[in-house]
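Page 37, top half.
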Amino acid sequence: MTRRKITLVVLIAAAAVAAGAITAAALINADVSVELPVLMYHHLDDTGDDVVTISGELFEEQMKYLGENGYTTVSFDELVDYVSGDLKELPEKPVAIVFDDGSVMKVVPAVAADQGLFDGKELDDEALARLQKAASQASAKSRAVRIISAAGVSKGELERRLIQKGETPADAKTAVTWLTDLNLLDDGQAARDLVQRGIARGYGPERLRQMLYEKRIPREYWDEALSELPDQSEQLRDFLTQKMGPDPDRKARDKAVSAALRRGFTWSQIQSALYELRQEL
């Protein structure tokens, strides 16, 4: 039976200027630009004396220095979630710490405690499998919490996004069930929130139904959420008037009608609004 020795490196509040080589990692999209210091270590070994090895004592001193100077470690998953909008904000002074050799497994303290881990403990295949499963589930739960803290989502949408982010389908389902049991996921509330956001953007009922479908809201919650839709007659008249302009011809009316349909208003609503506009002339 294969046995492996693990080394636990617990990073609480740590980061970077006084240790090792520092590079800058940047992720940029249309709205977000992030510059992140990255500390890269090669190997921890108290007996080593070469330039690519650092002792555990020195590493601990560096981590202490970073913590005392206000740095906080972040993972690259968290950085990606921040850029994509799933994470609202990063710490004021973020830093990433990576090792360029060996197997790396990110284990949260709760998992370390549950698995009875300690520095230098040897793991057989069965114990390693349990640890990997626990760490994988903890990763999915942590990511799920970050997603729902940024915006309300349905259970189906959360599960889809977790899988899209690289979590396994089984771990994604476990995380969704966990949050549901904690009463932190409510498809009915997610449907109401989504409809209200659509109303604020000026969308009609058909566009709102499309949003509910795309966000994987179960259909049994649609009617209740859409029942909060206010009378949009005046809003639609204003929209058509703006699109048609003064003294519109047939072409201008057709373009305005097409725009209203794309916005999610029904043909019946548009006909009524056009009739009311003609009556006002």
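Page 37, bottom half:
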Amino acid sequence: MKLFLKRYRRRLGAFLTALFLMLAIGLAGPSALPDGAQLIPSATAQPTPIRRINPAAISAYLYEQLPNFPLENQYVSSDTGAPATENTLISRLIRYHIYIKNRPTVFRLDWKLTLADYLGAYERIRPNSYVDYGLRENPYAGDIAVMESLSVEQRNTLVNALYEAFTTADEPSTNAPEPTADEPATSSETPAASPTPAAPSAAPPVAPPAAPPVAL
């Protein structure tokens, strides 16, 4: 028993000593370390770059992949009085998913939750939370009716298309920023090669002057 208590006291003393040194170094900072000793830098998370998302551009791309999907772009713009053809059902779904529900765009499950909202199976959409984005008539009721009329296969196809549009390398959601005054605009055309100056032609050899005749 005495031997056990002796070992326990030694281990406890070593632990307390190590803990004291760690606290002392943490409070004093790197200056308390011996010469040549360095603290191991902790891994810091790098900020995720912000990408500009254009729902109208993404929806146009998706309608190319899903040509039979309902457009629902017959609603009239409150600004121009003409049909807002770019304001489609898919573009409004994307805006609701990103700007109203603040859901990620790179997971199929989140897109399925958004479609479940339209069906009233997850978080029921309220008319006052469904932004019309400049339309004279709120398309809330029409969009809900169209989504309810889709088959399970059509909904799954839409979810897969949305997921792929936001995760593929060539997604159409990121637009190149406009060039600034300090940064000239770049062009995709290959500049014409400048003509290579012709090498100067070699001068004709000059014959050395004839030596004067020597009298014998």
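Margin note: Helices lie at 2-28, 55-65, 89-100, 108-118, 140-149, 152-167.
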